[in-house]
Design goal:
132 residues; 2 domains; mainly alpha
Length: 132
């Protein structure tokens, strides 16, 4: 197993990872700076603010990236239809259980975080679409 882990680490483009992390951190700091008020300072880690919510999304994306890199590609080939079916259920479920956010009934509300299944579904569609 150690040889597989080493091969994954050796194949990663570390410059791209560094640029990605730099963009995420700069964007996160800009979100905080956009509403910063020196008279009423709020912690950058406060999850009620946009910067705190963005930190949750950034952390989740890092975990997702690690999971995609570590999980063998055959898993994705085997379970692709099940994952696709689950996303379709989410898309139908949002019509019934979705919350209204700014006039759009396409979000799930999970605590202070909103989740829009259509964004995940976009990644699952092949592009360009195959000709029939």
């Amino acid at each position: 197993m150690a040889s597989r882990e080493n091969s994954i680490l050796n194949r990663i483009d570390w410059v791209t990872i560094a640029l990605y992390l730099a963009c995420v951190v700069i964007g996160w700091l800009n979100i905080y700076a956009a509403v910063y008020n020196p008279e009423q300072p709020i912690s950058i880690f406060n999850f009620e603010t946009n910067s705190g919510k963005q930190l949750v999304f950034a952390g989740f994306s890092v975990l997702l990236i690690i999971a995609i890199l570590v999980i063998d590609y055959r898993f994705w080939e085997t379970f692709a239809f099940y994952i696709y079916g689950f996303i379709l259920l989410l898309l139908v479920g949002v019509l019934v259980l979705g919350a209204d956010i700014k006039g759009s009934h396409s979000w799930f509300r999970i605590g202070p975080v909103g989740f829009q299944p259509a964004e995940v579904a976009k990644m699952l569609l092949p592009w360009p679409l195959p000709s029939i």
